[in-house]
Amino acid sequence: MQPLFLYNTLTRKKEEFKAISPPFVGMYVCGPTVYADVHLGNCRTFISFDIIYRYLVHLGYKVRYVRNITDAGHLESDADTGEDKISKKAKLQQLEPMEIVQTYTVDFHNVMAQFNALPPSIEPTATGHILEQQEIAQEIINKGLAYEVNGTVYFDVEKFAKDHNYTALTGRKLEELLENTRDLEGQQDKKGRLDFALWIKAKPEHLMQWNSAWGKGFPGWHIECSAMSTKYLGEQFDIHGGGMDLQATHHTNEIAQSIAYCGKQPCNYWLHTNMLTVSGQKMSKSLGNSFLPSELFSGNHPLLDKGYSPMTVRFFMMQTHYRSTLDFSNEALQASEKGFDRLMESHKTLQTLIPSATSSEDIKALETRCYEAMNDDFNTPVLIAVLFDAVRIINSANDKKLSLTQADIELLKKIYQHFIFDVMGLKAVSENSKSMQVLDKVVNIVLDLRNKAKAEKNFPLSDEIRDKLTESGVQVKDSKEGTAWKI
RNA sequence: GGUCCUGUGGCCGAGUGGUUAGGCUCAGCUCUGCAAAAGCUGCUACUCCAGUUCGAACCUGGACGGGACCUCCA
Q1: Nearest to A319 by CA among A386, A240, A242, A393
Q2: ipTM, 2 dp
Q3: What is the domain-level CATH number for residue A50?
């Protein structure tokens, strides 16, 4: 297994990845709260971890990838007040909470499938693990690090912080956090300002509630991840991921709970993906600059000049490192669309290359550079730069400007398969459909007629055919070997 | 206000103390009946100020700009 380096938020530096029990790897990623259409920023996070998952698998690890669905317990504010997001939506639309959950879970799966993201190994839900969450809350009470007041169970942050580093993940000072936390309503029951709820007493009208030792209620937000990661990956596992916005509160509390529960750091490597911005500003509904994945695909949005295919968007996302902010703009998307097109065209060209007796290029070195890029904290932008070197080599070989042996052509095919399709998860835009096959024949008939016209030097006619094809979205490409075309 | 991150060529976006990132755009050339495609060549950047150094865009300090978190959020 070759050395893989990744940036660990816990230590704030790149570290060599060492699995707890190789070849097995346990990876937990915080999934979506299914109360609304999946947000493009969510997609970026899950696509980033899809690449990480795919690369680990490619390297030969046996990965158990757990990504939860939050379908309860997620309050509108983190002050442990306010309403459950899903309950609220359910009341608003006069639906069962589970209808909301079902609708948006299906939507989420559809979108992820369009982006060609692999499903996780296990996708557990918060509502499916109520007992496990209660058990953890009870155990933390038993350890003296949580307390119950009026049916709600709070985690005692300041008591925990006496023996543990509560702020390890952010590097903040506890005193500063205490000073900066403002007074919020409905928190009278809390002992400490930073305390957070493990279990929340439900009001009678609350739609989703369960029996517990503390009366009817529902779980706090953070505890589901502790419960489900422990259940499926054990008390200690390898990688925990999520968006950077989860780092300060959600993950900090998750670590505290897990340590309080079983006395161990739950996870060795914490990976965080950066935010998505639109023209320099964070994409958010309140700023009015957000669009849905479906709007991005269709182009049906005031901020978008046109639609972009899911694969274009995926490729675009990979041209930025996962720890940098990713800025959406029409110009940037169009640039990616062209680049992605060129990459995919070269894959077709690669299949038709004629081998030479010798090679003028070092393809093995190119493969090594691909691995070096990915081993350096999954650096997909550098990987793509290397792959464009391959594009140039393939096109030049096709133009007979340089030579490749059969072995090198095979190696290039392997590199393409491994890095473009297996690791980056890109795929050619569908070309195998029945109508596509028919179109292929039809266009070739038209091009044959054009070539006849050309042979007769009837250029007005041949140009008219070409221009009309171009108008219809078929690009004609003449070369010495003949005429090719693409959409 | 506090904490942290960041500032790269027309646009997007990597990276390193001294050597070409890459993509897109633009210009020229090759090829072509013309065009497109493809290839080649060119456009050589690193917010500002001071310091460390033989040498800094890359290290340190400061200024200014942008962003994230501190409040639901991937």
Answers
A1: A386
A2: 0.89
A3: 3.40.50.620
